[in-house]
Amino acid sequence: MSFNHTHYIPCLRWKLGEYKAVSQLPDTIKREFTPIIEAPGKGYDFATRKEKKTINELLAPFAKRVRNNWGKLPCLVDLRLIKDTERMANGDHPISFVFDELRALDCKAIPVTSLLMDAEYQQEIKAIMAKDKNGVCLRIIIEQAVNSTFEAEVDSLLSTLEIQPTECDFILDLGAPNFVPLEGFVKIIKDIVTKLPYLNNWRTFTLLGTSFPESMGSIKKRGEAVPRYEWQLYKALVNALRKANLQLPAFGDYAINHPKELELDWRIVKPSATIRYTIDDRWYIVKGDNIRDYGYEQYHELSQNVLTSRYYYGPTFSWGDDYIQTCADKNAKTGNPTKWIQVGTNHHIVKVTRDIASFYASSSSL
What is the DSSP annotation of 44-69? Predict the structure, then answer.
């Protein structure tokens, strides 16, 4: 796999809303990004006080969902949300099972590993690389990158995997940090990037992060613009790195989700109806009342709110935008929270790919 800094790398938890959002994208957009596809965790059933599914039940449909909704384009596959003690019923390691399935379906998947994975996981990764010849993706959290032993740890992992940086995709994962004050944070990240080992040798280099709210509890009803600090950081960082003549990263984010997977007791929680709509430098989040007491019909009004705002891009912008228009006109079902993750994610990916193209087109002419 090979791409440069003008490519987009969204991290998507491969649940129904996310993979259906991807399936609705045109091929022209799909070629502009490469997803980090995270296998979702097992979750917890508060009623039975047990995990919801066995590992076999969780992973059995995963490869087909990748093939059916993403196709044969390259993707990065990460099992970080699955406990390292999990094994399939026959004793196989989950990462081995997943890549056997993906390989059988002719998917071009690159395994993701990190310094956090145990020795057995790394050996499974090594075996996968030997079979697929697609290399590996190294996903590094920012706390590791500032460690004085970081370069030695990276060298040790590369040695274990018997691989060179030129065969590795490198992701610096900021998670969901405090971006404010932004100017100071740009300087911090620039300093970290400057000191990364093999900066000019990695096959690809991506900066991943988000400022998306962890919950909708703090969002005002009927419409609030929330800063996309990760995008603002990225643009400022690129300008700073250019001046220093350093390698530019690709832009990555968590789409319209927070990276932390919340374990919520749905017998108690009353989630609000929301539409998460990505705009320039911000998200326009339209929030209604809780759906348990007030139902899904309120999505007609919330869709109308997006339409009448100054932010709406029109029904031809994306499949998600068309759905908002149709729902506002009451010509579509109101759907449920999963459907609106699909709508928002679909719009977000189209918006960000265009933002990146526009940013580099305008900055190259300066």
Answer: EETTTTEESS-HHHHHTTHHHHHHHH
358: Cβ contacts below 8 Å, ≥ 6 apart: none
Class of domain 8-262: alpha beta
Using CA atoms, how far residue 57 sits from 24, 41, 67, 94, 236, in Å, is 26, 12, 18, 12, 44
- Long-range pairs, 235-243, Cβ under 8 A, ≥24: 235/359, 236/182, 236/183, 236/186, 237/186, 237/189, 237/190, 237/193, 237/207, 238/5, 238/359, 238/363, 239/363, 240/186, 240/187, 240/190, 241/190, 241/193
Alpha carbon 197 to chain centroid, angstroms: 24
Q: How many C-beta neighbours within 10 Å does residue 280 have?
A: 11
One-letter identity of residue 34: T
Residues 239, 241, 246, CA angle at the centre, nearest 5°? 145
Query: Does 176 have pLDDT greater than 80?
Result: yes
Instruction: Please give the full DSSP string across 274-339, using - where no structure is assigned.
Output: EEEEEETTEEEEEEEEEHHHH-STHHHHHHHHHHHSTT---TTS-HHHHHHHHHHTT-S----HHH
Angle between helices 150-161 and 119-132 (to 10 degrees): 50
Do 330 and 302 meet the contact criterion of CB atoms below 8 Å apart?
no
Residue carrying structure tokens 């990004």: 33
How do residues 28-71 score in pLDDT, each as one tens digit?
999 999 999 999 887 654 334 556 689 999 999 999 999 999 99
The residue to which tokens 């006080």 are assigned: 49
Structural tokens at position 110: 């690159």
Per the rule left: phi > 0, alpha: psi between -120 and 50, beta: everything else, 290 is beta
- How far is 238 from 244, CA to CA, in rounded Å? 10
Residues linked to residue 138 through DSSP beta bridges, in sequence order = 113, 170
